[in-house]
């Protein structure tokens, strides 16, 4: 049986070239990388954390983009199994974004 994943893969668009890059949200450091990139208004392909790439590198094929890591359906668009609106793994105390501040302020222990 596969390990259940509550955070599906997400994509972020480069501000320079407009290509979408995949972020795997399988561990806390991966989630933090995505969170930081999402909050960076000038994020570019060269800042992608998995390997060195540039805007000249090809974008992931659309057929591969359809699979986001949901354990229920390979082409899921976001269900209660894989989509998280906020949990202790994806909200950070040291972050000043509105989502993290609200979560830390109002979350029940």
From N to C, what is the helix and strand string? EEHHH
In terms of structural class, how would the helical and strand content be classed?
A: alpha+beta
Give the N-to-C terminal Cα separation: 30 Å
Radius of gyration computed on alpha carbons: 15 Å
Output mean pLDDT: 85
Strand order of the largest sheet: 1-2
Runs in which pLDDT lies below 50 for 5 or more consecutive residues are none
Largest sheet: 2 strands, antiparallel
Give me the count of strands.
Answer: 2
**Count of runs of 4 or more consecutive helical residues:** 3
Question: How many separate domains make up the residues?
Answer: 1
**Proportion of residues in extended strands:** 5-15%
The quaternary state of the protein chains shown equals single chain
Helical coverage, percent range: 10-25%
The coarse overall form would be: flat
Explain what the structure shows.
This protein is of the alpha+beta class and 109 residues long. It has one domain (10-106). Helices cover 22% and strands 7% of the residues. The protein is built from three helices and two strands, in the order E-E-H-H-H. It has helices at residues 28-38, 62-65, 98-106; strands at residues 10-13, 20-23. Strands 1-2 form a two-stranded antiparallel ribbon. The termini are far apart. The mean pLDDT is 85. Residues 7-104 form the ULTRAPETALA1/2 zinc finger domain. It comes from Glycine soja.
């Amino acid at each position: 049986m596969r390990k259940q994943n509550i955070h599906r893969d997400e994509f972020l668009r480069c501000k320079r070239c407009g290509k979408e890059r995949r972020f795997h949200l399988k561990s806390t450091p991966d989630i933090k990388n995505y969170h930081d990139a999402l909050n960076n208004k000038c994020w570019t392909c060269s800042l992608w954390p998995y390997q060195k790439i540039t805007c000249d590198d090809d974008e992931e094929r659309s057929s591969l983009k359809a699979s986001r890591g949901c354990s229920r359906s390979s082409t899921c668009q976001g269900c209660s199994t894989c989509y998280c609106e906020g949990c202790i793994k994806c909200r950070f105390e040291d972050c000043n974004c509105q989502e993290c501040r609200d979560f830390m302020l109002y979350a029940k222990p």
